[in-house]
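step=encode ok
step=design start
structure_in=
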């Protein structure tokens, strides 16, 4: 039981009088698992680590603290924790019963699909099964109330649509079918603007990651173009530093970051249009092969539109000190000297490279994931780290297979009259 040092608020009445001993022990045990430093209070650091350990996105930590911290102290006492969790679980139980159509105390696959349909959310049985497996810890292919309650402990809302959103998007790595195809969004997510928030978040992350890896990217371009003259990493890096100094390692990064927004927007728009064509008049989910076709089309379409920026990026990365004063100056000089066609040099091998990359990435990822599931059927879903390893391996295989085309593309982009 909490003492006066455990929080400045008065413990709720139900905590003192109405809480069964079994429930008290369960909640105290859960509190202690989250309270990593053992000081009797849960702060943002404790909760962030707890979410990380369970594979839930750490962004939910702040929301949990805000909703359970009654006295706004910035952390949560045992009394506050029990009060919040008890109220939260009461609402979760009501939602569970609304989905349990046959009232047998479990939610099975058919009930889940029916519930989604009643909410106006079309879901393929394969996706529904994967969502079910996220909660299903005992491998029975149905969800008990305890599994439902435990999985949704950190969900910030008990509204059924918010629960479904949390269910589908709370994990680090969505249990999707393809790591390279644009994200799918539900009708509600499209209407509420979640799609553009995902694009913005991905764009910001892309800007940061590209900026950090820009020196390696410029080094790669140099070796691709001048590989016969400079075959060693160290000598190539030394020559770049001698010619332009440390800041020269980031040449071409500005336009590389600049093209993220139009490329992402065009790819998303093309992907949505391709899905509509493939679906026809039905509202079914796309199969894995249809997603590959739609994703390849989207990638090809976006590359066709923004390809001149790709050529500019390569030329700016290879430029000598003082050759171009800006992106606009580079475009103007290249056009004046070489004409419009120069901005599409290497376009064909670039377009051809999209198909083997996306196809091999998809095939290897699915093969590794399915092999693990066949060998470990009793363990439920693969863990986040395992899925990340599958994604990294598949992406690497795709890049290796398509690299010859990427090399040809870069050399053609670098050619000038």
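sequence_out=
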């Amino acid at each position: 039981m909490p003492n006066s040092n455990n929080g400045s608020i008065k413990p709720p009445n139900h905590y003192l009088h109405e809480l069964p001993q079994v429930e008290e022990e369960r909640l105290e045990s859960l509190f202690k698992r989250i309270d990593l430093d053992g000081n009797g209070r849960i702060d943002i650091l404790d909760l962030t680590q707890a979410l990380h350990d369970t594979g839930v996105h750490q962004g939910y930590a702040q929301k949990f603290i805000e909703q359970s911290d009654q006295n706004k102290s910035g952390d949560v006492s045992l009394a506050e924790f029990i009060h919040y969790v008890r109220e939260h679980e009461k609402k979760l139980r009501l939602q569970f019963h609304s989905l349990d159509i046959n009232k047998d105390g479990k939610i099975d696959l058919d009930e889940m699909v029916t519930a989604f349909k009643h909410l106006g959310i079309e879901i393929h049985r394969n996706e529904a099964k994967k969502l079910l497996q996220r909660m299903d810890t005992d491998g029975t292919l149905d969800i008990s109330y305890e599994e439902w309650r435990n999985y949704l402990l950190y969900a910030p809302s008990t509204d059924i649509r918010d629960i479904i959103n949390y269910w589908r998007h709370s994990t680090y790595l969505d249990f999707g079918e393809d790591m390279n195809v644009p994200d799918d969004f539900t009708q509600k997510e499209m209407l509420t603007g979640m799609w553009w928030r995902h694009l913005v978040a991905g764009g910001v992350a892309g800007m940061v990651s590209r900026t950090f890896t820009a020196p390696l990217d410029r080094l790669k371009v140099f070796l691709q173009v001048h590989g016969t003259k400079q075959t060693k990493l160290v000598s190539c890096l030394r020559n770049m530093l001698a010619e332009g100094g440390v800041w020269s390692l980031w040449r071409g990064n500005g336009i590389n970051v600049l093209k993220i927004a139009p490329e992402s927007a065009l790819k998303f728009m093309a992907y949505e249009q391709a899905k509509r064509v493939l679906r026809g008049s039905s509202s079914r989910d796309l199969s894995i092969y249809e997603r590959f076709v739609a994703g390849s089309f989207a990638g090809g379409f976006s590359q066709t539109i923004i390809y001149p920026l790709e050529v500019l990026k390569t030329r700016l990365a290879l430029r000598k000190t003082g050759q171009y004063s800006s992106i606009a100056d580079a475009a103007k000089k290249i056009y004046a000297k070489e004409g419009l066609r120069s901005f599409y040099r290497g376009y064909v091998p670039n377009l051809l490279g999209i198909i083997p990359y996306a196809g091999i990435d998809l095939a290897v990822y699915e093969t590794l994931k399915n092999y693990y599931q066949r060998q470990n059927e009793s363990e439920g879903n693969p863990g986040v780290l395992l899925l990340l390893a599958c994604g990294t391996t598949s992406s690497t295989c795709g890049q290796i297979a398509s690299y010859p085309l990427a090399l040809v593309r870069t050399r053609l982009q670098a050619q000038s009259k």
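step=design ok
step=annotate ok -> The longest helix spans residues 194-226.
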